[in-house]
Each structure stands twice: as C-alpha cells, then as structure tokens.
Amino acid sequence: MKLLKFTMLSLFFLVTYTFQSQNIGDFTSIDPNTVQSASFVLSSSHTFQKIAEVGDALTAGGTFKPKPDFTAYVPIANSSTNGYLSINSEGSALTDGGGGVMVFDINFNATTELWETTASEDLDFTAVGGTAANCSGAVTPWGTVITCEEGTIPDTFPPFDGYNDLGWNIEINPATKSVVAKHYAMGNFAHENVAIQTINAIPTSRTVVYQGADSNPGYLYKYVATNFQDLSMGLLYVFKGSKNGTGSWILLDNTTQSEQNSTLTQSGASGHDATVFAGIEDVEIGPDGMVYFAVKGEGTVYRFSDSDPLETSASTVTMETFVGGGASYDINDGTSTTLVAWGNGNDNLAFDCDGNLWVFQDSGNSFIWVVKNGHTQASPDVEIFGKVPIGSEPTGITFTPDYKYLFMSIQHPDPGNAANQVDAAGNTVDFDKGTSLVIALSENLGSALSVEDENFDDGFTFYPNPIKSSKNLIIKGNQINNIKLYAISGKKLLDVDYNDLNEVTLNLKDIQSGLYLFKVNDKAASKLVIK
C-alpha cells in the first residue's frame, strides 16, 4: 500500500509538472480534412465553456444580442481570474435587434475551475447618437475598450449633428458600464480593429494607433494622439508604398467635421492615391515590435516595421508578407501530414504568451490557425487549432494576462445545427445561435471534479474510476434511461437508451485512454478517466 501511494504521488507530481509546463499554444493540430459539421472542433488537448448565447437573459434587462463579435477580457487590477468581458454585437437595431456592446462581470471559481457571470448589461449609446455594426476592437492600455463600427453611412438619423452616423471608433468603460466618446479624429471608414501602442517619449509619453479600413479599396492608417491616453485629438496618416518593400506615411486633413467625414476620399485615387488593400480586418502589434495586419480579400497577413512611430514625416515603413499570400503549409495532426492551402478569409488576430499568432478564418474552411513563433515564408511553421460549426465564423479574441484562457465568439452559425456538445461545465451546446465562450487546456478548465468521486447528482453512482478499458463501468441509480459519453473536446462517443434500469454495465474496450465526461439522463454528469 505504501508503494502504491508513493507511485500515485509521484505520478501526480509528474502530471502536474507536465501540465504546468504547457501553454495554451501547445497542441496537436486537428485533422485538416475534418468535414465541417454542427460541432465546434478543437484540438483534443483543449476544452471550452459557454459564457452566453444569443437570447440569454442579461441581469440588467434585455437579452444577449445577435452576431457576437469582439470578446474583450478586461482584467481588474491585472487579474487573470476577475474582470469584465465586453462583447460586441455586429448587428443593427434597425435590422436584427443587434448592435452595441454587452458587458459581463466575470470571475473564475477556483473550486469548480469554471468561469461565472455575476452581472451583465447592454450599454446605452444614446449619448453618442447610437451605434451599429460593432465588429472587432481593442482593449486599451488604460483599461477601456475601443469598439469599432464596421460600416459607413452619412448623417441620416438624429441628432443630425453633421457627422456621418456610422464608421467610427467608440471608447467604452466596462467598469462603469458607460460610453466615453466617439473619436471622430481617428477617421471615418469601416473600422474593424485598432492596435494601440504607448510610446515613452520626452518630454511626455504618447499614444499611437494603427488601424485599417475593412473595405475594398481599403487603406492602412496611423493615428498619433495629441495627448497621452486620450484619443479625442491627433494626427491621422495613410500608408503609401510597397506591400513587400518600403513606404511612408502621408498626413491627411483631419481638423474639420468635413475632413473627418472624408477619410476614404482623401486616401483614394482622387486624393493621395494611397496603397490599396482588399479589406483590412485586424491589426496587432507583435512581441517583436512589428505591426501585423490581416487582409481578408488577399488571403494575406502582412507585417511591417515603423522606423519611428512618432516621426511620421521621416519614418520608413518596411513591409513584407508574413503568412498566406497564396501559400500552402504542411499540417501534421499527429498521424499524418497534409498540405493545406492558407486560402482567403484571414480575419481576427492575437498573440499568445509564446509569440504565436492566432488567426481566425472567416469563410473557406473556417479554421483557427496558429502561426508559430519563428515562422517565416521560407521556413514555415503553421498549425490548425480548430474549425467552427457550419455557417459560422470565429470572431473576436483576447487572452487573460496569464494567457491561460482565450475568449472568443462563434458568430451566425446555421440555425439548424444540433451539435449536442457538452462543455467543461456540463452544459449542452448546439451551436445553432451566436455563442461566446472561453477556451483553455483541459486541465485548466472544469477539471476540479475529482475522478475519485463516484457519486453523481440525483442519486446515481458509478465505479471504478479511473478504469481500464478492458474492464466494465458499472452505473447504478433509479430509472436510468440514457447514457452519453463525450470526449473532453465535446465530441459525443456513446449515446445509449435504456428503459428505467437501476443498473447499467458499459463496455469501454473501444475507447482510447484519456479524460472523458459522461451523463446520465442528460442531467447527472461526471468526469471519467480511462487508462
């Protein structure tokens, strides 16, 4: 017995050390030939938990809006377990009841190892004339959120203030559940995202923003704020030069209301004839200091260095293709290697703690790509983390400060989907409506339920656990009508009906070793370890 305890204790520390040495970007690619289905397919080492889906009630009134997009985790005091989740709605109040931003107060429960919501509210944008088509955005270094309007319309609706009604960046404060301002000086165009950089300069620090127009023609912009951490005033520049070579920034007229309404016109052929991109989706500043941006219509993620972010008239922009651009990449799923075309549709971007670039694909195969740190086109290193359900696109992406948790949304899935997937909390998710969720390594999310606990809720028991695949699993309780077994990724492996039995014997000889979840009568749930 003492030897057994020592062996189990040693195994515990070995497994714990192994888990702690892993980061969220450590995984084996999914099979790229996986047929898109109603399910959310992700690497077997990871799991997800639903935060909310379209139609769910908000605590402050109303319901979760359609087309969830940018899913911004804003930490409280830099906490990775306590913060605000700001979720954009890319819809419109005029067409589908969407638009705007919902803010959730969330925290990680260390006992259940699950995320919990304590409050949720739909923000009121009346003070800035309303908002719509809220696509992606950014968390600012000072703890607010920029929500971007992906579309432009002239001054058509009240308050008829002379500014275009749509096509701006809007700053919100998730802590106070308030709207700070529409930032007209940042230009008017179909905004998708912004990347914010703080420059420590003498005599004062400055704030620089890189952003792009999600249109075709679209353009790349730089905004240098006049005051530190204040985006209400500044100089706006557009890029002109080579997409694989050098270029420079051109100052736009951006003082009057008319000038701020005409950003695209000034940038185009009748103005400065700036470099055209076929829809700039997301812009991110990498850990190497370079700026990365996704162009959906060109199927390319570019990156560039800016020789002096504040010295615009003399700074040199040196640009290159980072990933995509018609290239294909070898993807190894642990069994075989497949050459996979990058394709079009690269959209949202984010870097993890290891410097890997996560790239969400809108259209095509709807993959979640991960471009590994050190990748170049000459020496590629690309993996595929997941594939979203039929009809949907993966949207928004932020990490907690410790990079253990990834927040995102799945937008506009097919309403006919019936995935019947079980998340880390034991909830059944069909992915038939927009869903916001959190992803982590399986051991970091919903793993607190002891595998030695043989008692279900509702009076059911099972044994043994852990179990060898050569043995039978015994489940006891009153009126057993159905048993389902799921992989930790949510894939359903068994679904067996019974007729009010008090004891069931399951043979698991065809199930591989690993961590699983099974449910009785679609209510009682538990983790199961198969050796």
TrEMBL record:
Coiled coil feature spans: none
Occurrences of domain Secretion system C-terminal sorting (ranges): 463-530
Keyword Signal tagged: yes
Matching InterPro entries: 6-blade_b-propeller_TolB-like, PhoX, Secre_tail
Residues that span the membrane, as ranges: none
Any Pfam family hit: PhoX
First and last residue of the signal peptide: 1-21
Keywords: Signal
Cross-referenced PANTHER family: DUF839 DOMAIN-CONTAINING PROTEIN (PTHR35399:SF2), SLR8030 PROTEIN (PTHR35399)
Name recorded for this polypeptide: Alkaline phosphatase PhoX
Organism in which the protein naturally occurs: Hwangdonia seohaensis
